[in-house]
Design goal:
By secondary structure, the chain is mainly alpha-helical. Helix content is 72%, strand content 0%. The protein has one domain. It comes from Lysinibacillus sphaericus CBAM5.
């Protein structure tokens, strides 16, 4: 019973459509009708501007962190679910949110939030890699996939050092999700038609 409840909570947290709610409440805009039609932070930046984009990014990151930290709450003390599984469930909720007709974002920010809640040094490393790569390329999708690759390499090395197999498995899943959700972006990058950010 308690395991089912904590998994449901993780999914519902991940399902919070930050970009949709910020757009509708403060800008009277449904970002699904603009830009890429995606509910993630990148389309929020593109559609609503820098301020809204930053807010949505932070909210999406915190969804992943909150899901991981659910396991630390006294109400869920009897749960046997690993915190990383809760993070993974939140990421699935972000990609397929019940509050937005199961059309969500591409899981980058929420995945980062999961890592922040579980291994903040890895989060800091990825944040640095993300910002440096974005500054150089100006392409968010490419930067996101490179950051995911860095996380995968780190988790593999970390496993051989510490034996933390759970982190390696989680990052492998997140890497797969991120690459899959960026299929169209990969095609545009190859064709040289992927848009570059203008707000950096």
């Amino acid at each position: 019973m308690i395991n089912g409840l904590i998994i449901l909570c993780a999914y519902l947290i991940g399902s919070i459509p930050s970009g949709l709610w910020i757009g509708k409440i403060f800008y009277n805009t449904d970002i699904r009708e603009h830009g890429s039609g995606n509910l993630g932070a990148t389309n929020t930046f593109r559609t609503l501007g820098k301020k809204a984009g930053i807010v949505v990014t932070v909210m999406d990151v915190l969804k992943g962190t909150a899901a991981v930290l659910l396991a630390a709450l006294p109400i869920f003390s009897d749960s046997s679910i690993h915190p990383l599984i809760l993070g993974l469930v939140a990421v699935i909720g972000h990609m397929f949110p019940i509050f937005a007709n199961f059309r969500g974002g591409k899981a980058v920010a929420t995945s980062a939030g999961v890592l922040l809640g579980y291994s903040w040094p890895l989060f800091v490393l990825l944040l640095i890699a993300f910002l440096v790569t974005l500054k150089l390329t100006k392409i968010v999708s490419l930067t996101s996939m490179i950051a995911a690759s860095v996380a995968l390499i780190y988790s593999i090395v970390y496993y051989f050092v510490t034996g933390d197999f759970a982190l390696s498995i989680l990052v492998a899943f997140l890497f797969t999700f991120i690459i899959y959700r960026h299929r169209a972006n990969i095609a545009r990058i190859k064709n040289g038609t992927e848009p570059k950010v203008k707000w950096l």
